Amino acid sequence: MAEQHGPPAVVFKGVVKEYGNVRAVDGIDLTIHRGETVALLGPNGAGKSTTINMLLGLFPPDQGQIEVFGKKPELAMRAGHLGAMLQEGKMIPRVSVRELVDFVRQTYRKPLPLQEILDLAELSKIANRNVDRLSGGQAQRVRFALALAGDPDLVVLDEPTAALDVESRRELWAAMQRYAERGNTVLFSTHYLEEADDSADRVVVIASGRVVADGTTSQIKSMIEGRTVSFVPRGRQEGFDLLPGVSSVEHRGGRVHLRTSDSDSTVHALSRADAFTDLEVSGVGLEEAFIALTHQSRHAAAAPEGRTT
Amino acid sequence: MLGYIRLEILRLVRNGGYLMMSLIMPVGLYVTLAGGGPDQESLVRAMVGAAAFGALGVVITNGTGIAEDRALGWLRQLRLTPLSPVQVVIARGAVATCLGILPIVVIGLIGKFYRGVDLSPGTWLEIFLLLWVGIAPLAMLGIGIGYLFKAQLAQIAGTVSYLTLTLLGGLMMPTDTLPSWLQPLSKETPVYRYAQLSWDAAANSAPSGTGLGVLALWTALLAAFAAFAYRRGGRRA
Description:
heterodimer, A: alpha/beta, Rossmann fold, Alpha-Beta Plaits, six-stranded mixed β-sheet, four-stranded antiparallel β-sheet, 33% helix, elongated, B: mainly alpha, 11 helices, 79% helix, 0% strand, globular, antibiotic resistance (chain B)
């Protein structure tokens, strides 16, 4: 594996980007090592695309530094370290799939063989079609092929499966995994937890322009997929964080809200202590989980020893 | 970068309508002017004017195509390759200049065989080279327009500058047929000075020093304009 050699694939240090008064990216610190497959998970408007566009050198951050393989993003792009697939963009007329892929691969110094790219992205059968005459899924696979055509060290995919049907989605992830298995570093963004779970070995959760959680998929899942147990406390007001499974405690509107990875054990313990009335157990949606993580990270920032990131 | 030039030329060559349009008007212009059976001098005038008109049309249209490419996201896609944005601009200039050959050669051939423009082989070559290389500064005008404006506006700006420069530059009719107050202005346009190089060459007279000076100034100005427009618009790619 290549991960020991040279600078990390990606380093973000205190990166900030503002649009008018809106802080789209609000101080991101992040290091991605070579060979990792990292999912950038977050709700719409979390700052994922802005983060990715800066990483690709499409525009500079207002504050902070970004390094890609020890170089400024634009130079890393120029040196052929990067390949990328963005969300927007239509296809140009009067060019075939084969011509477009071949053109992009030849802009790199050590590209993959043309046929290998076409196979990897399952484009061989439509290689002679014009790129502006493709279905949404086919066009997306062409964009994917363009991202990896130059055999770049880091492939960046911004919501690669947005607007794809289930079948195309599965094909794309299979292709991406085949590519990651070659030892390449992959960074992709998504707002589906299951995509992050299936395809990444590390998940970075972004909300409101900040990294609110960073860990293995199982760690993130336990943080996000738990349940909330809420009740009106009777007698004691403290010590709920010591109950089994509980990861956070919040007092809100006269009720106590516990986030727990194991609601059964939590409820058993609560009932043994006879500490509540009006108990409710509810699942946590992803949006709600993001909000909770955002709150947690704010608290963590206030009390540095409890950082989650 | 050669790969990029090849791809863009391929895209344009496959656009049959574009190629036909870039030839129909200049050919029509030459045939109209030459049809009356004028003297050699007027014939050469008409031929150079029509070829310059054709080349100008090609480079302006190529430039405004950049605005359409941006609307499609193609410029952004190019920024996701190791090609630098400056290489893209230079390549677009090269594409324009290459395609400018087409109307020059076609009009030259028609000039030779229809009504018979009579020039020595050396002069033919000289005129061909001057018409071809001299179009470069005007290619920069097209590129500047393409980067500065959005697709629709770029097309309008391109058409307006194309027609204005054609008329003012005396490509359709000699500049002394213009209203007298416009005539001095016409001498300051890059297109007049561009065509003048070839008119002078055909008459076997030395290139005008003033002409070269004006052309050099325009080359610098239009290069600066293209650079400015690129910095304004290329960033939004």
